[in-house]
Amino acid sequence: MKKVYRTFTSESVTQGHPDKVADIISDSILDAYMAQDKNSHVACETCVTTDFCMVFGEITSNAKISDDEIEKIIRDTIAEIGYDNPDLEFDGHTCEVKNRLHAQSPDINQGVDRQDEETGAGDQGMMFGFATNETESLMPFPIDLARKLTNKLTELRESGEIPYLRPDGKAQVSVNYDEDGNVISLDAVVLSTQHDESVSDNQDKLKEDIREKLFKKVIPQELMTENTKEHINPTGKFEIGGPHGDAGLTGRKIIVDTYGGYARHGGGAFSGKDCTKVDRSACYMARYIAKNIVASGLAEKCEIQLSYAIGVAEPTSVMVDTFETGADIGDKTFEEIVRENFRLTPDGIIETLGLRDTKYKQTAKKGHFGIDTLPWEQTDKVQDLKKYIKN
Length: 391
Fold this sequence. Notes:
Layout: E1 6-13, H1 18-36, E2 41-49, E3 52-60, H2 67-81, E4 96-102, H3 106-112, E5 125-132, H4 141-159, E6 165-177, E7 183-195, H5 203-218, E8 229-232, H6 242-245, E9 248-249, H7 278-296, E10 301-308, E11 317-321, H8 334-341, H9 346-353, H10 361-366, H11 382-386
Parallel strand pairs: 3-4, 7-8
Antiparallel strand pairs: 1-6, 2-3, 2-9, 5-10, 6-7, 10-11
């Protein structure tokens, strides 16, 4: 086996994790407004705790959604995630729900809506996108594997294949790389899953099921060595979880939502924000650019940074870092290539990626990046970019 040069760790969480519950609720409300009015401006935050959920934030929309309908969206979403039983101390049918949504500040809106002009950015800030050729999805291997574990864990619960599972859960993988940046083995795999009382005193049963029905189905077995450490529910029983076990807030899993810490992050969260908010849309565009650059062969690894000023359409800066893996592109710079081939204004991003027609709840549930069906994961610019490679 090759010598381990470095070990990198990423984590992911299931839909039933309290912070993810908040994300999914926020995006469910966003989807409801966008379904009626594609030009809705939404900034919806959610907090959850024991038998309590509150949504709050700013909305400007022509959609007609009553407070009762908002409450129904919230309750249906909570139950859909799996919190539909009073024994969990967080039940979509009976928990207290408070709605504190209100109209958006006109001071912000005047910089975004410009009538016949280009839409201005909804906020200032910097946004990052990343791609690497170490996985088929062009995602970093640690977050790619961690997310596959949590998504499969949810599937095992929802299908009833492991009937005692409850919605909350986490996965974490520590990946060994060699000096050339190749994945060589797994140093550690950590998985914690909420469960009912039937296996509280039989953790060996739970561990066996997780190994056989999850690890062996998802983890490439050639990466598991005699030195790989497995930690399954390392603290013991995990009955109390979800919003009853810990409070949840929208946007508190921004590293899980992006690249697992493998690439930089500008600090902005995604869920509950409409597509005029560059915190969300420009991150999607940056991923789209980075993925197409890597898929085209222009680089093996690529990070894009975009930055914006509130109310201004064009980005204030564009940065491309290929980590010395870039192809020979002659006298062109990568920034010039990006500006020539991608529309980087809010309107350009929205139109290129079809963001007014995107259903956002799916991103909060399954992952914002690495899912082939999402529009910013398409590699339809590959042929346009290949022409820059010098033979």
